[in-house]
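User: Could you check the structure of this?
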Amino acid sequence: MNDIFVLTFHTTHDALTAAAACADAGIPHEKIPTPRALSSECGFAVQAGPVPGAKLCGLIKAAGLRPEASYLVSGGIPVTYSRCETEA
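Assistant: Sure, the predicted structure tokens are below.
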């Protein structure tokens, strides 16, 4: 199943590296300001998808990154974020 995810990171460098990895893999993504409801650790997050979660996890892991957290995005207004477990 293809979903949309928001990945938060401890550093801006890691967020930018994740965005570059998504770009290299052809995964639709955006660098976004980290929603304050999710974290105040780093100012940037990566919104990726639609993409299968396993593919995104594998990509992030292969890039040597460890996200602070990953969230499944549910549509609607307001947007709902559900923390999801990853192996990345």
